[in-house]
From TrEMBL:
The organism of origin for this protein: Rhynocoris fuscipes
Listed GO biological process terms: signal transduction
Gene Ontology molecular-function annotations: odorant binding; olfactory receptor activity
Keyword set includes Acyltransferase: no
Membrane-traversing stretches: 20-42, 68-87, 131-153, 186-206, 292-313, 325-343
Similarity section: Belongs to the insect chemoreceptor superfamily. Heteromeric odorant receptor channel (TC 1.A.69) family.
Domain of life: Eukaryota
Subcellular localization(s) per the UniProt record: Cell membrane
Keywords for this protein: Cell membrane, Membrane, Olfaction, Receptor, Sensory transduction, Transducer, Transmembrane, Transmembrane helix
Membrane disposition: Multi-pass membrane protein
Gene Ontology CC terms, in alphabetical order: plasma membrane
InterPro entries assigned to the protein according to its UniProt record, in alphabetical order: 7tm6_olfct_rcpt
Pfam families tied to this protein: 7tm_6
Protein name in UniProt: Odorant receptor
Taxonomic lineage from the root: Eukaryota, Metazoa, Ecdysozoa, Arthropoda, Hexapoda
Length: 409
């Protein structure tokens, strides 16, 4: 590749730093920083039990029941994301290392037009990886702040804090059952630990979505680069032949210029094949890393979207609760769309590689590259697909099905 190898750990740290890795640490999703995930899991597991019991106690009251179910699904999804990330650290590091290295280096085989076209796409990816995460962070932080300050907003509106119910359900961040009264010290501790849960959940949401966004952007970029370099393989081979032929003759090369050009063309295509195989291998790890998490996210998002729709049209839910759920509804729609849109893009771009290969000037050298074209097209007919544990593809068709369910509600 022609670059100094600074070691695997260096490139992992580089990929981690350049792709908002600190958000994963905030959410306790990166192995090696054990305090946050330990606190979150120990804090969350008893709260999940309390939330299930809260749902049971509020079967006749839609407002608190729905809120408890909403929080129950969110915490279950968050726990899945944390455990999944910690267990699959090796896959994550493999992808981060490739991102830190820049995936693949074509060396001196890129002609000026290819460099310009690739630079345009790289600049677009850099801009999106800068703007989109910031917008998403703002949306999630607003939702988190509304949730954390909800008890004070209700006090400002009504002039008093919400009284505990007779069945033991009290308002902390949300209404939840506790086996002790608000006047006790245990209530203060529970209040504190619910705030910790919400704080870490914000980090989990940001770490999950933004890490996925950055990795997906890089995969899309690499698929575009493969397409560009395949389409311009003839021009790349001519440049390589021009720049190295004289040196090869000085070293005793007895090939004619035409034969040496064929060697250069084969070398350029071999680079594309190597790059393509690298991305396929990395995408397999990316797919395996996200498969279970995507299943929980999509199923949970579908449930929460439908639940939010029911609450929004209900007459038995307060205006403040509806406003809170409207924010959650907007966040969930964006949250689900991110995964489905990038899944669709990677699927389309991986399929288009075969077309890009066909669009090259293969007819001038058909005897050399026609076999490569057939192989590449055959592989491109099986596009890269993200799936939710094999139960559904993660693409815009899935997203439309989720929205149809919401519209039906």
């Amino acid at each position: 590749m022609g670059k100094e190898d600074k070691g695997r750990d260096y490139y992992i740290r580089k990929g981690f730093k350049e792709n908002y890795g600190l958000l994963m640490i905030w959410g306790g999703m990166y192995l090696g920083h054990w305090i946050i995930p330990a606190v979150f899991l120990i804090d969350t597991l008893p709260h999940l039990t309390l939330l299930v019991y809260t749902v049971y106690l509020c079967l006749d009251d839609l407002g608190p029941m729905a809120e408890a179910m909403h929080f129950l699904v969110m915490l279950s999804t968050a726990c899945t994301s944390v455990v999944n990330s910690l267990l699959q650290r090796n896959r994550l590091d493999k992808i981060l290392e490739a991102m830190g290295r820049g995936f693949f280096d074509y060396g001196n085989t890129l002609d000026e037009e290819s460099k310009k076209e690739i630079k345009v796409h790289k600049d677009e990816v850099h801009r999106r990886k800068t703007v989109f995460p910031r917008l998403f962070i703002i949306c999630v932080l607003i939702s988190g702040m509304v949730l954390l300050s909800r008890i004070y907003i209700e006090y400002f509106i009504s002039g008093h804090y919400k009284e505990p119910r007779d069945n033991g359900i009290v308002m902390v961040v949300i209404e939840v059952y506790y086996p002790f009264r608000p006047s006790t010290e245990l209530y203060v501790i529970a209040f504190f630990f619910q705030y910790i849960i919400v704080f870490i959940c914000v980090g989990i949401i940001l770490g999950t979505d933004i890490t996925f966004l950055c990795m997906s952007e890089d995969f899309c970029l690499q698929l575009r680069i493969i397409g560009i370099t395949l389409r311009r393989c003839d021009q790349r081979a001519k440049l390589l032949c021009k720049n190295t032929l004289s040196k090869q003759k000085q070293n005793g090369c007895i090939l004619s210029e035409q034969d040496y050009f064929k060697k250069c063309l084969e070398y350029c295509i071999a680079q594309n094949v190597e790059h393509h195989l690298m991305i396929i291998d990395l995408f397999y790890d990316f797919k395996r890393y996200n498969r279970v998490m995507l299943l929980w996210l999509l199923v949970g998002a579908t449930f929460l979207l439908c639940l939010s729709g029911i609450l929004f049209v209900s007459d038995n839910v307060t205006a403040l609760s509806k406003t809170t759920f409207l924010l959650f509804l907007s966040t969930e729609l964006v949250h689900t769309f991110i995964f489905c849109w990038y899944g669709e893009q990677m699927q389309i771009l991986s399929r288009e590689i075969g077309d890009q290969c066909y669009n090259s000037e293969w007819f001038d050298n058909s005897s050399i590259i026609k076999h490569y074209i057939l192989i590449v097209q055959k592989r491109s007919n099986v596009p890269l697909r993200l799936s939710a544990a094999g139960y559904m593809d993660v693409n815009l068709n899935t997203y439309s099905n989720v929205c149809i369910k919401l519209d039906y509600i």
